[in-house]
DNA sequence: CTCGAATCTGGAGCGCGCTCCAGGTCAAGA
DNA sequence: TCTTGACCTGGAGCGCGCTCCAGATTCGAG
């Protein structure tokens, strides 16, 4: 199976090498397989997962939130517990969207006013 | 004209007294009028403005962003410059909404999967 | 085999956005 | 007048999310 060096994984994901190691330390990704010499070998699955993490980070979730997300998806949990957790997270995101909507409305008012 | 003490302004806005003073130091609000003895006296206008700041903070804008916002609205700028700035800010917020949408979609997929 | 680039680890440093603290001032009630 | 509590200032401290650094190790090209 073909794997990626840290530099390649960084290029593919747009996440810095330092941050990749940080995420791994924090348990958000991996643990990533190592070569005999101890170098990291990122798989396609790793890259995909990093993409998910990035997606949630971009959406404003904190490291702790993501740790929770990882925990729920990785460990064995009854489906209903997972669904409950996921719905809760979704609701939180909706709150954020609402906050953004309010701010955009204020901007729109100002834009109208100055136009 | 009736004014509010720091404690009252904090109650009304939901922003801590420390944070109100911090915002003032950073130029996001005020400068707030003072009593003879040097205590702050918040006006209704101040409270309203604090509401705006809070709205944008909740939407995820940084202190520096808000300083820019304040500068554009307070100082004399040609309307078209203000509008350009406001539109730019609005576009940034749309980006954030899009990021949230992507994250919510991922959650929805997982929810569907586990349901 | 040698050299240089890439990677490793542990830990320090940094910018942000507050939050807290010490030490002093002001103001309203008993 | 005295006390008590809210408020003042300047500055330190903190949690987050990286980011950078030193010093050692590994690996591929020549």
TrEMBL record, chains A, B:
Q: Which UniProt keywords apply?
A: Coiled coil, DNA-binding
Q: Does the keyword Coiled coil apply?
A: yes
A GO molecular-function term, please? Answer: DNA binding
Query: Is Magnesium there in the keyword field?
Result: no
The highest taxon in the source lineage is Bacteria
The protein's matches in PANTHER family, at most eight in alphabetical order, are given as: HTH-TYPE TRANSCRIPTIONAL REGULATOR ADHR, REDOX-CYCLING DRUG-SENSING TRANSCRIPTIONAL ACTIVATOR SOXR
Report the protein name in the record.
MerR family transcriptional regulator
